[in-house]
Amino acid sequence: xxxxxxxxxxxxxxxxxxxxxxxxxxxxxxxxxxxxxxxxxxxxx
Length: 45
What we know:
Layout: H1 2-14, H2 19-41
Helix pairs in contact: 1-2
């Protein structure tokens, strides 16, 4: 799933998507990374 968001982010950058879109994608990717880390640590609720 992480790789998918990196791919989406790269496509958006190459397609010269608005900066706002790239920022939103980055926000989602960061949230996903935090959620995966919490699950791995056993601290997810």
